[in-house]
Amino acid sequence: MKQNKNSNVVRFNRWGYYFLIPFTVVFIAFQLIPLVSTIYNSFFEHYFKNGLTEVGPTFVAFDNYAALFKGGDIFKYFLNTMIMWIMGFVPQIVVSLLLAAWFSDPSLRLKGRPFFQSVIYLPNLIMASAFAMLFFALFSDGGPINSMLVSLGILDEPYKFLSHTASARWLIAFMNFLMWFGNTTILLLAGMLGIDTSYYEAAEVDGANATQIFFRITLPILRPILIFVMITSLIGGLQMFDVPQILTNGEGSPTRTTLTLIMFLNKHLYSKNYGMGGALSVILFIITGILSIFVFKFNQQSQK
């Protein structure tokens, strides 16, 4: 009898493996093989001279990696990427936490909550390229923002938003904030609505105020979701490309202060320098892994 039971369990478990086959095939074809080929190509000199003559592939070991770090450009582009990510992520997480706490508070009796949740999520549905084109038109030298500021007497002449480092970075960060704060709000709201209300009731009985409840109960319980949001946002920040690419026409103006790591990678791929592009992709993979582990470990330590 026991043997028949075990055989039935094995037979049912097979279906789980059958359903895993499509995922495994897609993962191997579109993720594992490209990853391995990228690491392999990073050790070769392989590019097209003048776009026509193929050079290589010639094994050069770590020469591509050494060339990337020579001159320090990669550090500059990494710093650009992190600065613009932080400028967008800090207000994103603050605003999302406030909105999620507002939407999840039953005492406010907010009317039309589903409508407001849908509205703040809408920017996330707009293509980043369309968003960038919109802001490029709004903040151009002859755009409506400059026209309005000049007509109101705030400015004597149009301000070149994309010609100054601070304004260009803030503009890119603001666009990323607008596109993603709605998604973050929905994630945090789902976590807050899943918290047992008995915790809040017990805290109120003990005399805790709203601030103490938020920092002592809500945030600690939300820690797993906050880790997920931080890591996914960090990965998205390191992959920042479409907004600065379109807004600065791929040049990272002014003086390459808005040029990100992925824009730098795109220049190598556009020139068909597969060796340098592969090396930069591997470096990005390592940086993403290290920063993600750091965020995870930091949250674990703070939890203790």
Which secondary structure elements does this structure contain, and how are they paired or packed?
Layout: H1 2-41, E1 44-49, E2 53-59, H2 63-69, H3 73-104, H4 113-121, H5 128-138, H6 144-151, H7 165-193, H8 197-205, H9 210-221, H10 223-238, H11 242-247, H12 261-270, H13 274-303
Antiparallel strand pairs: 1-2
H and E string: HEEHHHHHHHHHHHH
* Spatial strand arrangement across the major sheet: 1-2
Briefly note the structural class of the backbone: mainly alpha
User: What value does the Rg take, in angstroms?
Assistant: 25 Å
Biggest sheet layout: 2 strands, antiparallel
* Overall mean pLDDT: 85
Tally of helical runs: 13
Q: Poorly predicted ranges (pLDDT <50, ≥5 residues)?
A: none
Beta-strand share of residues: under 5%
Which geometry do the CA atoms define?
Answer: globular
- Roughly what percent helix? over 70%
The tally of strands reads 2
* End-to-end Cα distance: 49 Å
